[in-house]
Amino acid sequence: MKNGIKVFLCLLLAFTLFPFNSLEANAQGNDVSVKLRNYLGNKKTVGVDVVGEYLVEGQNDLTLVSSKDYSVKLENGELVLYTGNSRIKEFSGSFTVIPKSYGASNYISINGRDYLGEIEFTIEESYIRPINTLPLEDYLKGVVPYEMPATWHKEALKAQAVAARTYAMNYVGSVIDDTIRYQVYGGYIWDSSSYDTSTAAVNETVGDVLKYNGNLISAVYSSSNGGHTESAANYWGNSHPYLVGKPDPFDPQRPWSLTIDKQQIDTSGLDLKNPSEWWNSVSEKNSDLAELNNIKAYINKDFYPNTEIKIVGVPKLTISGKNSSGKSTNGSLTVDFFVKNADGSYRMEDTSELPDDYSNELAGEDRYGTSVEVAEYGWAAGADSVVLGRGDITLDALTGTVLAKKYNSPLLLTRSDRIPPEVLTEIKKINPTSKRVFLLGGEQAISESVENSIRNSGYTPVRIMGETRYHTAVKVAEQIQNSSEVIITSGNENSPDALSIASYAAKNQIPILLTRSDRVPAVVSNYLKKHNISKVHIIGGTVAVSKAVEDHVRGLGISNINRVQGEDRFATSVAIAKEFKYDMSNVIFASGYLFVDALPGAALAAKLNAPVILTRQDRFPNVVRGWLDGLSNQPFIHYLGGPVAISENTRDEIKQTLTASINLYTLTKEDVGIGTLRNILGGTLFKSYHITNVANSESRVTISGLGYGHGVGMSQYGAYERAEAGHSYKQILSFYYEGTTLQ
Questions:
Q1: Rounded to whole angstroms, what are the CA distances from 356 to 116, 359, 360, 588, 637?
Q2: pLDDT greater than 80 at residue 6
Q3: DSSP character for 276?
């Protein structure tokens, strides 16, 4: 090839066209219909401009003119034509615009690219898909310079024009598209002098097609055959006598190579149990990203859609076999990889066994029995006092966890009208040294009957109460001395946020105050002012505790406000565990919806300095899974409540999270057709089957080859060299399509 020829790779690589049944047709007088996909992409709005005039088919009063800007939008399943911001017309299905007269005086622009002829606007898979219909010869003027550089020798371009025309004739009467799947079509670009040679090549061969035994041939071509054409029989298994394998001395045998390191990620220093710690900071070799991205695309498409892939290594890449054309036929590939799901979780596998006693369940026959089980577990050695809360409304009892911690007391639950026998028995068993039993709430919460049962058992009931839950929380807070900070959370009894923060508040003796969502109760506001509070932790998002509440607190002169929140109750419990200091040797799991079971567990959590983490009953939330997976230690697990609160399936997921490591998957392709390897690695990198060398070292593999594309039919670079050597386009076509006739 002479100096100055530029490699026109992007559009010449790997143009694979498949044989089709022959169709007898005359090239002249035929229209071609082309879906505009390659340059337009998938759009729900396209800009439309016209030069001259375009008529809307079936709309006698609607004409598009060059003085206006138009657009077509897909709205509610209909195509809508606009001029500027004004709707002109809605169309169900499709509509077609036709030039007032065909030719260069009337053409249309779609998103800035010009087209001759008519345009039908259709809907395809929820996107606008224009279809351009125009005469075959003008279509070819937009194809030839996109398949072969427009400045190349005219004889080469004429050979390209005949091959492209012959190929297109097989599709007359059907709809093709403008991509490499058929032929790349650039629209009406040939009005520029830059395309004079390619346009002349089409005009000077007008109507010429190639036939074999009177039938149109499959006029396939590729960029470069590597010095030897490939036969159709070898490549497709279809015997076409005019597509034979033979040496091509004029093909420049353009070289290429592909190199991949066998190890992409060194896993020896990674904590495979906690991939979240390193996933975003570990990556493959930058030098191999193009090849690896193609492999990832293949894995995503065929095996793990909508996931993120990290390739650990490519330990095997080999090429084997040769056919009669000297092209390689087979190969093997092994790829090791990790998978991260779209929801942020990782594909894990069990790699170790937990002991049977990795966890315990604190559960009774009902919530009252559960509170007894928790008390026996945490206060078997006795307690100073006992705190008694109402079992059917949670908030009074939750705010009392701070009081329970102050007096080293369990939190037991009672019915409003009577104390369950097992609870009274447990109080007697604990036999608090102070003889005090704190009752949280007024007589509507815990009746006089319960109080009398406590007194008659030899203990002193101490009632802490207020007019409302907000008042009661303040009364409990007043039992706590010398705290300059408070926790404010939702007073909504359906909110579990107070449960998640209760253990930290209790351990650190920080009062828990309740608020309405939209405003701070006066009793709470007065407490903040009276006790010179300097720091406030707000638990929950602005739906639970509004910005108005935060602004009110700030208006009291408290500038140190810390809001802790998550997207939901589960994420909020994780956010609390991350925000505040806990001893992670214990983790307490509670139901995010049946959290009344977990009420007594908040006092136990305070005793253990452990976080209370919420989970769904029937499945383990991903946000919690990620947090547990990221812990540096393996905690002891406490389940508050039985399977009705936390199912066995959820417990299995928690156990798996504690034991699993990220799964190393392997893609294996052993002795497969070389086309499979080229598909996986990408045709723009693995450029042909004409492999000249495979250098396989301990650390990397390099594949070297010649040519670009399948090598069947005409070599475009070979055609250029032949034209430069003085061959006519007829001689070029005669060599590459042996035994055919030009008609």
A1: 76, 8, 10, 17, 12
A2: no
A3: G
CA proximity to 535, closest of 519, 515, 517, 511 = 511
Distance of alpha carbon 76 from alpha carbon 472, whole angstroms: 54
Sequence-ordered list of residues with C-beta below 8 angstroms from that of 143, at least 6 positions apart, any chain? 164, 168, 183, 184, 185, 186
Using CA atoms, how far apart are residues 723 and 413, in angstroms rounded to an integer? Answer: 96
**What is the distance between the alpha carbons of residues 532 and 529, in angstroms, rounded to a whole number?**
5
CB atoms within 10 A of CB 515: 25
Give the pLDDT of residue 351.
67
Asked whether 661 and 276 are in contact (CB, 8 A), the reply is: no
Q: Which of 345, 344, 380, 346 is nearest to 362 (CA)?
A: 380
**Burial of 697 (C-beta count, 10 Å sphere; 0-12/13-18/19+):** exposed
- Taking the C-alpha atoms of residue 570 and residue 593, their distance in angstroms, rounded to an integer, is 10
Distance in angstroms (rounded) separating the CA atoms of residues 658 and 351: 10
pLDDT tens digits for 384-431?
Answer: 999 999 888 766 677 788 899 999 999 999 999 999 999 999 999 999
Give long-range contacts, CB 8 A cutoff, 24+ apart: 361-366: 361/638, 361/639, 361/641, 361/642, 362/601, 362/604, 362/638, 362/639, 362/640, 362/641, 363/597, 363/639, 363/640, 363/641, 363/642, 363/645, 364/422
What H or E segment, with its residue span, contains residue 742?
Answer: strand 741-742
What distance in Å separates the CA atoms of residue 592 and residue 597, rounded to the nearest whole number? 10
Per-residue pLDDT reduced to its tens digit, 137-186 = 999 999 999 999 999 999 999 999 999 999 999 898 899 999 988 999 99
| 587 bridge partner residues | 637
Residue 103 CB contacts under 8 Å (≥ 6 apart), including other chains? 116
pTM of the model: 0.59
User: Where, residue-wise, is CATH 3.40.50 in the chain?
Assistant: 366-465
Residue 105 above 90 pLDDT?
yes
- The upper half-sphere exposure of residue 399, i.e. CA atoms within 13 Å in the direction of its Cβ, equals 35
- Annotation: CATH topology of 366-465: Rossmann fold (3.40.50)
- Map tokens 């015997």 to a residue: 239
